[in-house]
Amino acid sequence: MIKGRQLFSNQGIGRYFTNTIWLLAEKGLRIIDAFFIGIWLARYLGPDDFGILSYAESFVYLFAAFAALGLDQIVVRELVKDESRRDELLGTTFVLRLLGFVVMFLGIFFVTRILDNTAIKNTMVMVIGITIFFQSIRSVDFYFQSKVLSKYTAISNLIAVGILSIIKVILILSEAPLIYFAYALVLEWILIAIGYSISYIHHKLSFLTWRFKWSVAKSLLKKSWFLIIGSVAAALYMKIDQIMIDEILDERSVGLYSVAVKMTSIWIFVTVAITQSVFPSLVSMRKKDKALFLKRLQQLYDVLIKIAVMVSILYTIFASYFVPFLFGSEYTESSHILVLYIWSIVFVFLSNGSWGYYLNENLERFSSIRLVIGAVINITLNLFFIEWYGLVGAAYATLISYAISGYFVNALFTKTRTNFYLQTKAFLNIFKINTWIHPL
């Protein structure tokens, strides 16, 4: 039996560890930006304008999920399997995402004309929607992920986020109007796109060798169409609550609820950094030894769930104190929402970790099915809970739907039951001291 430390050593843990450190550094800066600048921004805008900004971001997020076409980890997986196809995979992915942006932007335009929104809301949505165009360059990131060299894209993100943090401070100090903060989001992605391009060229690689192939496009879309459904479903149950709160209640309520969402989302950066860095090693390990693959996945779940539970306990204890202190008395009500909403990250962490299982076991359909189930439950519960219980009801709807889609639904299917057992064991391992002392 290979011990955990040996396992990680044999699989080049140093490389993956370094990669994770860079990703965590980037996510760490985003956490600092979201925490300090985000708090300052929320105080400056107040619940009403902060609610409009959050509504616009959530609205665009729903459409962005479609524009991404569910290609992210599929392209990474294909690059890990056969790097010789790099140019056709990256070129085809780039073109597909550009086409996805065009369709998405047209969709946003027509939907905003149907909804009874104010002019400022529609303007904010259209401006923020432009960011999806520049996200097409993320094809470069897929290459670096496959080579476990995400530090290069992480550096690009670090620079962009750092510059934007300074710009947002300047906007706040100069008492800039709300729309300027939408422009700032667009500028951030322009800087990221430039940084990604420089990093790619720095590795003596050329965009001129990229090529679009219909056969590759058809193959990728055939593999990802269920993931597209899953991504849209995930976006729905992650962001639809804020849209529905705006429709059922008002903009101020969206602002209050968004504080809980953003204080929770800070920690999602952590799970994204960890799972994104570990994914290529899971692909390689699955090809060699399934037993070692499951062992590594179990260790991943153990680490993720411990982080999530510790954070949730701390928030539950101190939320009523730090929310009014940080955001001001206008946001006091947000603390009650946060105490419930924070526990959803337990299941979000498990859900993000599950992609390593679904994609390596060719279970894209099951991963999408569980997200669709989660979306349907979330929307249904929100329709009733927001009316009955207000903002706390929306938090309950999120927690319940996340628990079902991220954990319980795995028990329903024979092919995903192994994943359910691994997740369940991760819960049980919380109470085993040795899994804390020797997590790897």
Task: Note down, in words, how this protein is organized.
The protein has one domain (9-437). The model is unreliable at 1-11 (pLDDT under 50). It is mainly α. Helix 8 packs antiparallel against helix 9 (179-202) and helix 13 packs parallel to helix 16. Helices cover 83% and strands 0% of the residues. The longest helix is centred in the first third of the chain and has 55 residues, at 13-67. The relative contact order is 0.12.
- Mean pLDDT over the full residue set: 87
Distance between the termini: 14 Å
Number of strands: 0
Number of helices: 18
**Low-pLDDT runs:** 1-11
* Structural domain tally: 1
Most strands sheet: none
Task: Give the overall shape.
Answer: globular
Radius of gyration: 21 Å
Structural class: mainly alpha
Q: Which range best describes the helical content: under 10%, 10-25%, 25-40%, 40-55%, 55-70% or over 70%?
A: over 70%
What string gives the helices and strands in order? HHHHHHHHHHHHHHHHHH
Q: How much beta, percentage-wise? A: under 5%
